[in-house]
Amino acid sequence: MPEQTHITIVGAGISGLTTAYYLQRRLGDNVQITLVESADRLGGKIVTRNVAGHPLDTGPDALMVRAPVAAALIKDLELSDRVVEPNGGGARIWSRDRLRSLPEGTIFGVPGALLPLIRSRLLSPLGLLRAALDLVLPRSRSTAADPSIGELVRTRMGAEVFNRLVEPLLGGVHAGRADTLSAHSTAPDIAALARTHRSLYLGMRRRSARATGGGPVLVTLNTGLGALIDALAAQLTDAAVRRGSAVTSVTPTAGPLTTCYRVDLDDGSAIDADMVVLATPAFVSARLIAAAAPQLGALLDEIEYASVATVCLAYPRSAFPVDLVGTGFLVPPEEGRLIVGCTWSSLKWPHLADGNVVLLRCMVGRSGDNRWVAMRDTTLVRRVRDELDEAMGLVGKPLEQLVQRWPQGMPQYVVGHQTHLDAIATQLCVLPGLFLTGAAYRGVGLASCIADAERTADAIVSARMDRADGERNLRVPAHRALDHQGER
């Protein structure tokens, strides 16, 4: 068996924590893990705050459990009894001064049925006719290896479907603009439908017909997703966790038989590691590795990010002139609003239901819209409140308010993202023992980050065994090496 391997993980958000968790489970006493986090708390963008006496998440508020790895993690951490499923009712679109129902069966803005689309009145009569042309138009012949989502949808279903459905949904999930986002990397289901079907609408219908039930897609925890971070941290009993320590650089060093790494910290200390995992945002990883690997650093620094913020408000129920139905609303960019989306958290999640208080989570900021960044919190809240008053007819003031800013918080998978990842992988080949994981690469959602962390842990285990085999071969005398070759 190989000797104990020293692995340093930089960044203790969901990606870094789950990488450490999977490594500890797979390698046990054969690994020594050091987890380094620049903040004083663990969890990265997973933050649960007390708002009006309720645990409200100010970053991600849901986990996609259709991903087997996410469901398995919840079970393994013994959190199943805390799982909460969302209420139904669907989302709305704030379009042309009204909240309109999002048509059922819509995926990334592509409608799966015409009747709900007609009933929603989201599109004008001409917009509906243009969308219906998708049924008779010949197959699109895109020459782009990696088309944008806008290129795929607009050519098939027209500008109104794109502007009033696709753009708000992409803004709500990715804080991006569909004309720049890669279809392959951001919406692979839509890219596959466009590749394999003449009509997007018919392809969506066939996909819906094949789809089966099997429980909710998204869930949360009744004490907030911060409980997921606490449970992961509690499992890392054998790891050294250093909070409030910023890494300044990661440098490869020549070991006796293979490449090792020195991890320098801002207090002047250093950690020697056999392997290093950078679970930090791409622009942070770029700075850490730039001196030792300038080409890799440049590639990482080219990954684009959008800045976003969450504005949490607690209103008395009397502030709502009518009963709310649904889970919230999204806003198309063409409306020119500051709000990208608003979740009616008290209606979406049963554990947040309260007869006296309604909790709202509003997201602002998307790619190309940084109007809010220079605003003070008080100004930002006032602007958000004005828009909520217009959309929902609210009266009075909130009981509590909270602003959570996420500068450069959302990576953008722009056209060519996969090619960019391939170039990064090529540069990593000359740095054996260095690994990258996180939202910047293969999925922005929590479940995608968990899945990528597991893949990273598996790759480390494989690389560790390969390294051990190589070291044994180097240590075997020549005549014994020939003996072993004859045994194969």
Task: Throw out a few tags for this protein.
488 residues; alpha/beta; FAD/NAD(P)-binding domain; Polyamine Oxidase, Chain A, domain 2; protoporphyrinogen ix oxidase, domain 3; seven-stranded mixed β-sheet; five-stranded parallel β-sheet; 38% helix; disordered C terminus
Describe the overall structure.
The protein has 488 residues and is α/β, with parallel strands linked by helices. It folds into 3 domains: 5-43 and 223-293 and 431-475, FAD/NAD(P)-binding domain, CATH 3.50.50; 48-64 and 80-88 and 305-409, Protoporphyrinogen oxidase, mitochondrial, domain 2 (Polyamine Oxidase, Chain A, domain 2, Alpha-Beta Complex), CATH 3.90.660; 98-210, protoporphyrinogen ix oxidase, domain 3 (Orthogonal Bundle). Helices cover 38% and strands 23% of the residues. The strands form 5 sheets. It has a 7-stranded mixed sheet. Strands 10-2-1-14-20 form a 5-stranded parallel sheet, covered by helices on one side. It has a 3-stranded antiparallel sheet with strand order 5-9-6, with no helix packed on it. Strand 12 and strand 13 (270-273) form a beta hairpin. Helix 1 (14-27) packs parallel to helix 10, helix 1 packs across helix 16 and helix 12 runs antiparallel to helix 15 (417-428). The longest helix has 30 residues, at 446-475. The chain is globular and about 75 Å long. The model is unreliable at 474-488 (pLDDT under 50).
Quick overview of this protein structure:
The chain contains 17 helices and 20 strands.
Shape: globular
How are the strands of the biggest sheet laid out side by side? 8-7-16-17-18-15-19
Q: What CATH architecture of the largest domain do you see?
A: 3-Layer(bba) Sandwich
* Uncertain parts: 474-488
Q: What percentage of amino acids are in beta strands?
A: 15-25%
CATH topology of the largest domain: FAD/NAD(P)-binding domain
- Provide the helix percentage: 25-40%
User: From the helix content, strand content and strand pairing, which structural class follows?
Assistant: alpha/beta
Give the end-to-end Cα distance, rounded to a whole number of Å.
19 Å
CATH class of the largest domain, please?
A: Alpha Beta
Oligomer: single chain
